[in-house]
Amino acid sequence: MTAHILIVEDEDAYIEELKRIIGEAGGAAIPTFVTNRDDALAQLETGFFDFAILDLKIPTAKGTTDLDPEHGKYVFHHIRKVSPGTKILVLTASPSEDFIRPLIEQKHDSDIWSEGHKVHTVEFLKKIQLDEAPEIISKVVAAIRALSDVELQCEGLNLSMAEDRLVRIFAKNFNARRCAVYPIGSGKSGASTLRLQLIDRTGALIREVVAKLGELHKMIDEERRHDAHIVLLDGGATPRKMKLLEFGAGATAGIFYQLASGHEASMFLTMAAEDALAARAVAATAEALSGWSIGRNEEPKTIASIRRSWLSDEWAAKLHADYGLTWAPEFERRQIQTRWCCVHGDLHGENILVAPDGRVLVIDYGDVGPGSAAYDPVSLELSAVLQENPTLGAAWPTPDACRKWHELDAYVVDCPMPEFIRACRTWSNSLATGRRELAVCAYCYLLRQLKYDDTDKDRVLALLDGVQACWAAT
Q: Pick from 45, 248, 39, 44: which is nearest to 161 by CA?
C-alpha cells in the first residue's frame, strides 16, 4: 500500500532532504509538499494523509515572509481537528520552547497500524537532528505497506481510502489474511455499516464482525452510549464491542462489534422474503430491548420536550414553516403521559439483522438515549414505508391509507407485509401509555424524516394527517 504524507516546510534545503528521505524509505509513498499555513489547510480539507511532517515556523501564505511558529501551531491543531487519526512529526528549532508543551499534551501511544506495539501519535524532532528522520519515516511507510498483507474481498463495494485503512488495520490486529466485506446498510447519519468476515492463514473463519465507520467524535459517542446502555441488555441480541480504532485513517474512525453467525439478512430483506418471519423477528426485537422499559413508571411531559430528543427547536420551527404545519406549535405545547426510558433511537429495518430461525441482532448505537418507550417500535414500523427496502414503492401505502394510519385494519389493506406492520403495532401498544403517546412518537419520527432530502415528503405529510386523526380519536 502507498503511504500518503503531507509535508509542511518552507526551506528549500529541508524540502530537498525530505524528498530524498521519503524516496529512500523502502516503500511506496506519495508526498505532498506545501510551504505555508493556508496551503496546508487547503490540502487537509480535501486530501487523505497517513502522516504529516510539520515545520512550525512557516508563513501564512505563499509569497509572504511573516514566519512565525504560531502559524505551524495553527496547522498542528487543525490536523488534530479535521484529521485526528493522522500521525504527526513536528520539526522544531528547539523542543524546549514554551509553545511546545501544549503540543506534547496531544501525544498518545497507540498501535496505529496493528504492528503489535504502540507508537507515538505525535513525535518531535529538532531540525539539527534531521538525520534521525529516515528511521521515523521508514517505519511509517513500512507499517502502511504491511497492511497490504491483508487481502480485501469487497464484492464490488467501493471503500474510501480511510475505510480501506480501518478494515485492514482491524483485520491485521486479529492476524487475518483475508477479509470479506459486505454492506449492511445505514440510516441518515452518513456513517458506513459493514459486515466483515475475517479469515486466517488456513482459510478458517476467525470471526464475523459488524463495523461502523464514521467521524471520530461520533464513534467515541457511540462507544459511550454502548458502555452506558447496551451492556444492560441481553447479550444474545446485542453484539459485543470488540475495538474502537481512532488512529490510522485520517478523519475517519471505526467501532467494531462481534457478530453472531447466521444473522445475514436485514429486517427489510426478511420482510420482503417472508412476512411471517419478519413478524417473529419484531417480537424477538421487543424482547431484546425490553430491559430498558420494564418497570418504568409513567410521567407527564410536553410534546415539545419529547420531540427535542430527536430534533432541535430550530429545526422543528423551520420544518413547521416549510411544510405548512400550522397546527404543530399548538400541538407541541400539549402534555401527555409517557413511559420515559432508554431507547435505540434509530431502529429502522437495516439496524436489525435476522437469522433464519427469527433470532435478531440489534446494531448501530449512535442515537441510543432517553426517549418515549414507544418510539422504537413506531420508528421501525414507519421506516418500512419511508426508508429504502425491497418492499418500498408507490403502490402502498397510498395517501388515503396513510391518512388511516391510526385505523390499523384499514391501513394494512393491500400492504405487502401486513404481519410485520401488525407486529410493530402490537409492540407499540404494549409500551405506549395510550394512543396519544403513540401519535406523539409517530409525529416525532415523521417530523425528523422531513429534515432529510431523500424522504418522500408527500407520504410523510399524509402520514402526519393520520397522526392528527389518531390524536383526535382520543
A: 248
